[in-house]
Each structure stands twice: as structure tokens, then as C-alpha cells.
Amino acid sequence: MQKGSTPPPAGYYHAALQPPFLAGGPYPPAQQHPYVAYRGGEPYQGEGLAPGAYPPPPQYQLQDTGAGATAPAYNAFPPPMTEQAFLGEGRNDADKDDLPPEYQAPLPGSEGFSEKSIRRAFIKKVYITLAVQLVITVGIICMFIYWKTLKRWVQDNSWFSYALFPAIFILIIVLACCDNARRKVPGNFILLGLFTIFEGLMLGAVSALFDADAVMWAVGATAFVTLGMSLFAFQTKWDFTMAYGILWVVVLVVFAFGILCAIIRSFWLQIVYASIGTLVFAIYLVVDTQLMLGGKHRYSLSPEEYIFAALNLYLDIANVFLFILQIVGLSR
User: Where are the alpha helices (DSSP H) in 178-266?
Assistant: First the structure.
């Protein structure tokens, strides 16, 4: 086939794999076109060809076309030529562009490579979004612990922290349950930005109740735990995504344990509660990271859910920070 030749119309097969008959009607003679046409699965005699001039391939059985038939027909035909078959006839890799689109087969592993490229772009987008969230949050926390006037105001007005809970809860429900809200740009980024600001204000209000040194120690410990759990999630062969349902039950138990600690107000009981909470949300960080990675894990997030993935990781890191801050504050 010459480079730049016109691809055959629908229904044609390569002449190297088919008997050289040409369909009648408006198509040119067989000598002028390297393709054979079939109508209804049977070849038709072309112009300028005598019936039976070309014998059929030995692997195909002749059919009786009835009285007045002008060409033999066959009961089976080979599949269209693929790229591997085309290149297997002594042609070079450069000839693959000569194949019509219907004969070009995807290279082995190309589909997996495409999936990996999409997943890498998805992970990159999630971590960029998460990094912006964390920078905003750390900036708000620093404002609350180093701005003395704001710190004293928050300490004197405890209602500020509780007033933020309804707004944060509503935004979490919207981003987690409304597909259109978290997938449609730019609304998803606006909602995530509002959630980040409200969550940062809440974390800053809680941090204002502690010394600046304790808050910075908690920030450093949270960064260490986050980095360690993320690296573990990237390289481990264990699939933690299968334990997602169990973790929901564990979180409910930890929540009930926290209510008990608030009633009893025992120093050592609160230390135990904060330690268990840190462990649980560190495991949650591993699970949510593997959900984002996909691949060999049983469950994974769709590449369209980058806002949801960033929200999950941000909440895990925020909860780890709160529990570590409680441990550091109680130890002092």
C-alpha cells in the first residue's frame, strides 16, 4: 500500500487476506484497487474478471451460489488485518502509518499506560490542592497564636468556635454528597475554599487556647506523621482500603469514648483518648491515600473526584493535628 493512499470504504478488507474479487457497481476494477469488497458476507465479481479466475484459499470451503452465479462465495472470511499481521509480512515499523484506522490495533500496554498517566495527573492535582489548603490553614493558625489581641478575644468568646461547627458540617455534607457541587468548576473550588477558611478559623480558635510553642510542636509532629503515613501508603503491599467500613465503626466508638472523657474529665483518660484518636486518623490517612492511588488496591476514587480526595486528606490531617495538640497541651 502506498503512503497517502485513500482508505477503503466501510466493508472492505485487505487484499492480502481475501480472494481478489471486487464488488460490482460504482467501484473500480480489481486491478486498480488493492481492496476486495463484500456485500452481505459474500464476494461479488468485479469488472474484467472471469468467474473462478482466482481460486479460493485452501482453508475456506466453496459454497454453491446457485444457478447463474458468476463468482464463488465462501462460508467464512478471516478477520480484518491487524497491525501485528501487517507488520508480520516483512514490513517495517514505519509502515504502520499506512494502515487504515480500522486495521490499527493499540500497542500492547498502551491502555494501561494511558490509565497510569491519568492517575498520575489526578494525584498531582490532589496534592497541589491539598498543599494550598494547608498553607492557608497554617497561616490562619499563626494569626490566632501570634496576634495577641485576636488570641485574647477568642479566649474570652468561646462561642466563636462552636458557631463555626454548623457551617463546617454543612459544607462537608455538600462536598461529600452532591456530585455536581464537587465536580463543577469553579463552584467546587469556591466551596472547598470556604470550607478551608472555616476549618482554619476553627483550628486557629482551638490553637489560641494553647501556648505558641505547644502549637508549633503539634504542627511539626503532624507533618512528621503525615509524611510517614503517606510514604507508607505509597510503598506498602497491604491493601487498607478493604478496612474502610471497619474504620467507620472504630470512629463511632472513638466518638462515644470522647463523650465519656468529657463527662469524667480524667487526665490519663484524655491522654488515652487523644492517643487512640491519633492512631485511628493516621490509619485513615493511609486508607484515603490508597483510595487516591488506585491501581492494585481493591477500591479507588475516580480521577474526577480530586476535590473529594483533597477533602478527605485534609480532614485526616486536621484531626491528627487536633489530637496531637491535645496530647502536647495535656503533657505541659
Answer: 179-183, 187-207, 212-235, 244-264
